[in-house]
Amino acid sequence: MLTTNELRWFYPGRIPEDIEFWFWQICPSDQMRSPQEREDKYLYTPECDYLGIKLRQGRLEVKWRKAELGVFSFGEFVQGKAEKWGKWLCDDPTKESFHLAQISSSSSWIKGSRE
Questions:
Q1: Using alpha carbons only, what angle is made at residue 40 by residues 110 and 81, rounded to the nearest 5 degrees?
Q2: Which residues contact 62 (CB under 8 A, 6 or more apart)?
Q3: What DSSP designation does 12 have?
Q4: Average pLDDT over residues 42-56
Q5: Domain residue spans in the chain?
Q6: pLDDT band at 51, cuts 50/70/90?
Q7: Is residue 61 within 8 Å of residue 87, measured between CB atoms?
Q8: How far apart, in whole angstroms, are the C-alpha atoms of residue 39 and residue 114?
Q9: Which branch of life, at top level (predicted)?
Q10: Most buried of the four, 38, 52, 55, 56, by CB within 10 Å?
């Protein structure tokens, strides 16, 4: 099981320049890289904001929120929720399960893509 602390915020429009600068120049992690393109499918679970189930790159990922750590502010206009999450990655070595095509016609799964 993987445990992460995450800070999430949703902000309409372009990322403010000072926030983008921080991620590209000051962020204490590895140098920013362009994200890889991918398509994921998320199981639609209304009224359940503490659990996420998705199919990504041939595996099933189950993620649940273990703790809410509070709201943090970045400047005057940006706030984000800090949370602790746990994640299980379920691989199928036979490659017979966890295919997007198996669920593509189901309304219970929602497509999400990153370009």
A1: 80
A2: 51, 52, 53, 87, 88, 90
A3: S
A4: 91
A5: 2-9+39-114
A6: very high
A7: yes
A8: 7
A9: Bacteria
A10: 55
Angle at 69 between CA 9 and CA 10, to 5 degrees: 5
| pTM over the 0.70 mark | no
User: Edge-to-edge strand order for the sheet containing 38-43?
Assistant: 2-8, 78-91, 59-74, 51-56, 38-43, 109-114
Percent of the chain with pLDDT over 70: 86
The structure tokens listed for 65 are: 């929120």
Percent of residues in the chain assigned helix, strand, coil, to nearest 5:
10, 50, 40
